[in-house]
Amino acid sequence: MKVKDLTDIPKAYNPKVVEDKWYKYWEENKIFHSEVDESKESYTIVIPPPNVTGMLHLGHILNNTLQDIFIRYKRMKGFNALWVPGTDHASIATESKVIAMLKEQGINKYDIGRKKFLEHCWDWTDKYGGIIIQQLRKLGVSCDWDRLRFTMDDHYYEKVVEAFVKLYREGLIYRGYRMVNWDPASKSAISDEEVLFKEVKGKLWYMRYPIKDTEEYLVVATTRPETMLGDTGVAVNPNDERYKNLIGKSVVLPIVGREIPIFADEYVDLEFGTGAVKVTPAHDVNDYDMGQRHDLEIINIFNDDASTNSNVPEEFRELDRYEVRKKVVAKLEELNSIEKIEDYTNKVGYSDRGGVPIEPYLSEQWFMQMDDLSKSALKVVREGKVKFHPHHWIKTYEHWMGGIRDWCISRQLWWGHQIPVWYHKETNDIYCDVNPPEDIENWRQEEDVLDTWASSWLWAQDVFTSEEEQKYYYPTDLLVTGPDIIFFWVARMIIAGMKFMNDIPFKDVYFTSIIRDDKGRKMSKSLGNSPDPIDVMNDYGADALRFTVNYIAPLGQDVLFSSEKTELGRNFANKIWNAARFLLMNAQDVELDETLLNKHIDFTDEWILSRFQNTLQKFEKALDNFDVNGATKIIYSYVWNDFCDWYIELSKNRMYSDDAEVKAAVLTRSLSLFAEMMKLIHPFMPFISEEIWQLLDERKEGESISTSDFPKQNVELINETAEKEMEFVQDVITAIRNIRGEMNIPPSKIIALYLKTESLSQVQQDYIKSIAKVDELVVDKIIDKPKASASAVVRGCDIFIPLEGLIDLDVERNRITKEINRLEGMMVGVSKKLSNEKFVNNAPAEVVEKEKAKQTDWQNSIDKLKIILSDLN
RNA sequence: GGGAGUAUAGCUCAGUUGGUUUAGAGCGCCUGCCUUACAAGCAGGAGGUCCUUGGUUCGAAUCCAUGUACUCCCACCA
Q: Is the CB of A656 under 7 A from strand B?
């Protein structure tokens, strides 16, 4: 054992130099690479592939740090750990970005055609797709970069197509003319999950529809007056007395002049509006259903960009939906057909990606039948084969899976996996296969591509490119993702796993918190409250950010983040750095020797090892239960409070000893424990732990803490006797510090101490003397209180500090009185319990004993303090 | 209209199966300290009706119920 020769160690930790250096080292030495190895158990995580359009944000930081923590922990525990990285082609998101980019150059997608457009998409992917991957390296993630995957890689593409063909042949994928959510911006269908409902302040228009052959009219209320151009009926509730006589009659549609029936349908709510509903089967889901029930005509009035088509009167054609709304309302007012207009707030569905209101729209689409597919996926989660953390997300999952509807998987886009279906040019026959038909000239391929999620749902199984690998690594162990994509991705991956692999895709799912700003608001570009993680890492270090985010992120609750909070992690890194610096500097000229590990041992050594074991146990338990936040706190308090505040301080006695062997022994021990500590830190703060671990001893080329053995639990090192001895010393020192503090006795002032107890070991006495700056320490069972002294009672023992000339009697009286009051307050509770017969009779004997012991101890202390107080008076 | 979560110190949160916690931590605040690892630090201190009201129990921050407040998800009400 030999520490690195160091001439100058910087006083403050500088992450910049350290972090880049080690990441390079890890990559060069392929520390994160994994190969199939049947002699070892695998531990696998697949990264939630970020979009190629994406930039790193704080959500990624939390998410990827968590994955890295688990993968590094398991790697050190001896698993063959593999973390597969990759990116998602993100069909609609990327396509709209490329369209926008081309638009700036005056280029239109349709003008250049599919082939050329896709080239632009690939260019975009090559140019921007790697950014986020590069940014992740800065965070220190231990992905196996030799396995970087993309959802449009050849192998992956084939697998997506294969899955489609298989499901099509089983009749689970079908084509249908249906009402879908239409995004007029991208001119594509989107799935139900991609629709976000927003509250929008709008109006409710009451419109008069003249009843045929009468002077009367029927008033209908609507939020979308323009759709009246496509009305083909008016519905009322069958039980509505107001309109009973009108059922079967018809109205004449204003502007259009079309005669449309009045009919009865249970769907209509008597309370809302006028109780009469205009029905537009082509542009509203409910209206469509009513149209089907009552055999109404379906008139589509919109083009695919939601402008009006030739099915409306000429003067209203080729207008945007909001333009035509104004025009229709104006016209109706002119015709005196508007009864009134009310303010009304309703929920409008917006396209998640396009950002514009979606349009219910009838079109030919491909659907996946989800009913049967979802059954086994629901079962494995219910049975706990796939476990959710926090567990309560299971309810959300069950709810969605229970009411699952068919999935619209076709998109009228070009960037993505083109649907492997060909239509015969003459017969219109359908051909579906992984390979195109041989007489390709007679066929034309389906233009549509698949929903992005209909490719990424295979991520957990098809990032592995050989059967051997798939068999070895699948099922993966852990998925870390946000609860916002539980339906989009998590559920569908489980479905795909059960369908194509007949096995679950992962054993545990960790749902991360949502990062908000320090006021609890969502991070957003427009608010400018979203710090760039790269800046934060430059300012504070990647380790600091990683540690901080986890320290403040409880499982399942939002994280309130601001850049300044990263000081917590930075300060901790600096603390670790300085503790290491202290040991390393002292070890420079010392002959370290591992045979000294068990020499010159005292209770403080036993205590710190005992505490380490205790910490290790709690740490592993926390991580095994996915309580990452808890693990950060456990390690933080051990390093800072136990190791730095107490152990290092106490070790100085021997560190500065004249006996070289004593010094060497204490340093050897501290350094070797420090190396073990670094291993617990490593999953959270990989860079600083590697840096220090490398300094602590001579390491071979290519060696890394990442692949070192994680500390093993050893119950034999738990030492209660040592802990008791230590606690007594700590309490005495704390009591003295308290007196010093409250009496304003300078730390430099050396004091005497009288300790009234049977006996106290010489080592304990020595530590008390050095830490508390005591020169004369008297320990005896018979001690008379010296004159003008401050006092305290520690674990039943009187302690006195003679302070002739320094003591302020008022302050001392206050101190003692405060302590008596505190103890008496506690006594009230205990006495009440013990005088309660029911408690004494019913509570377990040991609990009663404990309470009695407390009572005796406290009473004892109170008595002593009272004597002290009366002496003062 | 359904469902989920949260409420503990000025702020952000811990608090393990009810009694080992005298309700803790970080930040902030107050008072001392440049004590030869660390001022990004050390030491001491102040600060809490554990959201309300009931219930279960010998015993409740902890379990149950009710209410209140905030957050989020799902749902086709024109």
A: no
A273 touches strand B (CB under 7 A): yes
ipTM of the shown complex: 0.95
Task: Catalogue the long-range contacts made by A551-556 (C-beta closer than 8 Å, 24 or more residues apart).
Answer: A551/A629, A551/A632, A551/A633, A551/A636, A552/A629, A553/A62, A553/A512, A553/A513, A553/A628, A553/A629, A554/A513, A554/A629, A555/A389, A555/A390, A555/A513, A555/A626, A555/A627, A555/A628, A555/A629, A556/A390, A556/A392, A556/A511, A556/A513
Helix extents (H) in A283-422: 285-294, 321-334, 371-382, 393-402
Cα(A792)–Cα(A802) distance, rounded to whole angstroms? 12
Of A204, A230, A208, A233, nearest in space to A220 by CA = A208
Angstrom distance, A287 CA to B76 C1': 9
DSSP A418: B
- For residue A246, give every residue at least 6 positions away whose Cβ sits within 8 Å of its Cβ, in sequence order, or none: A211, A218, A236, A262
pLDDT at residue A524 tops 80: no
A731 touches strand B (CB under 7 A): no
Q: At A408, which amino acid appears? A: C
Judged by C1' against the alpha carbon of A227, the nearest nucleotide is B78
Does the pLDDT at position A555 exceed 80? Answer: no
Residue A84 β-bridge partners: A46
Give whole-number Cα distances, A823 to A794, A819, A827, in Å: 13, 6, 6
- In the numeric block, the tokens 């996996």 are attached to A417
Q: How far apart are CA A803 and CA A816, in angstroms?
A: 16
Strand B and chain A: which residues 580-619 have CB closer than 7 Å? 581-582, 585
pTM of this structure: 0.95
pLDDT computed for residue A728 by the predictor = 93
Least confident of A6-15, A443-452, A666-675, A698-707: A6-15
Per-residue pLDDT of A386-410, as tens digits, reads 999 988 899 899 999 988 999 999 9
- A559 or A415: which leads in pLDDT: A415
A735 nearest nucleotide via C1' and CA: B44
Mark the nucleotides of strand B covered by protein, meaning any atom under 7 Å from a CB.
Answer: 2-6, 12-15, 19-20, 22, 25-27, 31-33, 35, 37-46, 57-59, 71-78
A518 nearest nucleotide via C1' and CA: B12
% of chain A at pLDDT higher than 70:
100
Protein chain A, residues 808-867, with a C-beta closer than 7 Å to any atom of nucleic acid strand B: 818, 822, 826, 833, 836, 838-839, 842-844, 847, 850
User: Which nucleotide lies at the shortest CA–C1' distance from A570?
Assistant: B40
Tens of pLDDT, residues A463-474: 999 999 999 999
Residue A420 burial by Cβ neighbours in a 10 Å radius (0-12, 13-18, 19+)? buried
Distant-in-sequence, close-in-space partners of A481: CB < 8 Å, separation ≥ 6? A48, A63, A489, A490, A509, A510, A511, A512
